[in-house]
Amino acid sequence: MSAVMITRKATRKWEKLPGKNTFCCDGRVMMARQKGVFYLTLFLIVGTCSLFFAFECPYLAVHLSPAIPVFAVLLFVFVIAMLLRTSFSDPGVLPRALPEEANFIEMEIEAANGNVLAGQRPPPRIRNVQINNQIVKLKYCYTCKIFRPPRASHCSICDNCVDRFDHHCPWVGNCVGKRNYRYFYLFTLSLSLLTIYIFAFNIVHVVLRSVDSGFVNTLKETPGTVLEVLVCFFTIWSVVGLTGFHTYLISLNQTPMRTSPSTLGMDMSTSPFSFGPFRLKSTSGIEIFGPEIDGS
Q1: Number of Cβ within a 10 Å radius of residue 189
Q2: In whole angstroms, what is the distance from residue 68 CA to residue 73 CA?
Q3: Could you tell me the residue range of the domain that residue 100 belongs to?
Q4: Which of the following is catalytic: 57, 141, 161, 169?
């Protein structure tokens, strides 16, 4: 009598994630469902750099230095690597409460607030915690059935709560949060350098060739130069400005306005997360300020 062995494939956690994300490579790649703008970003970077390598680099390598195309290639590879790392990473999705946990929280809230009459709006669900001797209000997520940690937020596009949520960036096709923020910042920083680099050497290339061939003949011989200059010119203002803004936030250990002190129930002039411009301050540890649910 032979025993029949039945093997079942184990269900991974990402296969049960209720959010609106897409996965591939056995869950190693995680992106939002709307990826059209991400492909546009990839096309603009690859297309602009390809034109630069085809039209400007051969001339600049001979007449100036062969290090120019080498550095451009290294910078291009780093930009693409940081873009893909940001786009394919888990931004810091917070797991939703299990049914037992959700029922316990609901019972705890009902015990604190009492029964709400039909037609009346229930009071806000808030829990107080203490961070660096300051009281911070944690908001309840009705979708994930959890009290979100400080500076976490629910992304309406991906339908997930994300820890240290910065924003949902369609240009990278993913949310930007705790686990991929560093790669997003390195992407914007390196893209700023690459854009300025290509723009500057485009100008140098046109000036050098115009001395010998004339300005009009130079543009005819390198038709991609005009397109590169236009793309870089409009990209510089947005990307460099974004990089500067996030550099400022990093220096103070802050996130954008959605998690400013006022949204956390604190005075606008203070923040328990701020390092300050010239000093470091530990923000580790969150102390629960009483088990009660504040419904006021």
Answers
A1: 20
A2: 9
A3: 95-113+123-147+260-296
A4: 169
Query: Under a CB-based contact definition with an 8 Å cutoff, are residues 94 and 149 in contact?
Result: yes
Q: Can you read off the two tokens belonging to residue 47? A: 């297309």
**Would 12 be classed as within a structural domain?**
no
Is 169 assigned a catalytic role? yes
Q: Which of 79, 61, 59 is closest to 69 using CA atoms?
A: 61
How far out from the chain centre does Cα 275 lie? 21
pTM of the model: 0.79
Q: What is the C-alpha to C-alpha distance for residues 190 and 130, in angstroms, rounded to an integer?
A: 37
CA dist 205 → 101, 161, 189 (Å): 64, 48, 24
Same domain, 184 and 240: yes
Helix (H) or strand (E) holding 32: strand 29-32
pLDDT class of 1 with cuts at 50, 70, 90: very low
- What is the DSSP pairing of strand 174-176 with strand 167-169? antiparallel
**Is residue 107 scored above 50 in pLDDT?**
yes
Q: How far is CA 179 from the centre of its chain?
A: 9
Q: Do 23 and 88 sit in the same domain of this protein?
A: yes
Going through 170-269 in order, the beta strands assigned E by DSSP cover 174-176
